[in-house]
Amino acid sequence: MHLPRWVWIGAGSLACIAGMVNVVGYLGFEHQAVTHLTGTTTLLGAAVAAGDVRAALQLLGVAVAFMAGAALSGLIIQDSTLRLGRRYGAVLAIESFLLVLAVPMFQRNQISGALLAAMACGLQNAMATTYSGAVIRTTHLSGMFTDLGIGLGHALRGLPLQRRRLLLCGLIIACFLAGGIAGAVLFSRIGYRALLLPATLTGLTGVGYVFYRQWQSFSGDKPA
């Protein structure tokens, strides 16, 4: 599996961004993870069982916001395969804008902050789904750890390994963790304004992608 440089850089950068966003949401007033929905859905089930209408509505709102972000990404990009030339720059700009908007909402202890952050993460996660047969998710790690575990099992049986795919999984996990560490440190010092860093990085990633795309077009190189 051949992965061009822009895929490696983009996947690592976006995983780091997601790690920062998620840890800020988790350390915030509602302690709500926003980059993945497994825990959210579990808590939703518990809230429904307990008859906690307020918590159930909030958790349902996070799930719907994430899905709405994914729907918006699908509307803009219109493809599930990662390919140079798609409108990723526009999606990243919208994500950056949503994260900036989430900051004052979080500071006012309003659930709309978590909804905006969840929508931004849904937008990001849907932006890149597959490349050369490899599933790429940058906002949650279950699939990445699963792929690494499968690779370990294959190695123990002496089967051939998809080394680049496993390296990509390792990169995404490491960058998500690094983002979580950086986000936690920033949150302890500047509170919800820590989200301005992933918002800035998202915007810069989008701008970098646009310049890379233009350079590829100018140089006449065929996108990988």
From TrEMBL:
Alphabetical UniProt keywords: Membrane, Transmembrane, Transmembrane helix
Q: Which residues cross the membrane?
A: 6-27, 57-77, 89-107, 113-136, 166-188, 194-212
> Looking at the keywords, is Transmembrane helix present?
yes
InterPro entries on file: DUF1275 (IPR010699)
Oxidoreductase as UniProt keyword: no
Q: What is this protein called?
A: Uncharacterized membrane protein YoaK (UPF0700 family)
The organism is Agrilutibacter niabensis
